[in-house]
Amino acid sequence: DLLHWQQLPVAIPESRRFMIFSGSAVVDWHDTSGFGVHGRPPLVAIYTAQPRAHRGPQTENLAYSTDGGRQWKKYSGNPVLNIGLRNFRDPKVLWYAPRHEWVMVVSRAAQRRISFYVSANLKTWRYTGNFGPAGDTSGVWECPDLFALPVANRPGETRWVLKVDV
């Protein structure tokens, strides 16, 4: 009801090797990932893993839940995206229905770029391009978001918005 809250344990705990950084979560309604059970769609979290002591690249990883988000299991095939950069983080994932594929925007923070990837199953990602640097380049770019907004006075028409925190 968004009024009464209950404290739960950490959903995706850190390990001895990796800290867990931000990302996003989706409902995989079509079970493209294959994580679903008994016809129920899984919740899938896409997050950045940061090696402890900041040695090594930041990578994008998956965890999934088949019980509505109470328990999460890290995907055994992690990382699902590793391009070898130390500042590659904050994946935002969405389902793009017209092409029946997942879209990920992820920050190349120090380069002040946002990279775009697509996937059929959330596990295998294909690079499609970059945005930036442009606009405010005074700080690192983090936590991108990509969403469609309706155009005023034009029913059925939308425009895509890419938001970046600086």
How would you characterize this protein structure?
With 166 residues, the chain is mainly beta. The protein has one domain: Glycosyl hydrolase domain, family 43 (Tachylectin-2, Chain A), CATH 2.115.10.20. 0% of the residues lie in helices and 45% in strands. The strands form three sheets. Strands 1-2-3-4 form a four-stranded antiparallel sheet, with no helix packed on it. Strand 7 (113-119) and strand 8 form a beta hairpin. The mean pLDDT is 96.
Structural class: mainly beta
How many DSSP E strands?
A: 10
How many helix segments? 0
Helical percentage: under 10%
Report strand %: over 45%
The CATH superfamily label reads Glycosyl hydrolase domain, family 43
What number of structural domains do the residues give? 1
Spatial order of strands in the largest sheet: 1-2-3-4
Shape: globular
Task: Look at the structure and give the mean pLDDT.
Answer: 96
Q: Can you identify the CATH class?
A: Mainly Beta
**Biggest sheet, in brief?**
4 strands, antiparallel
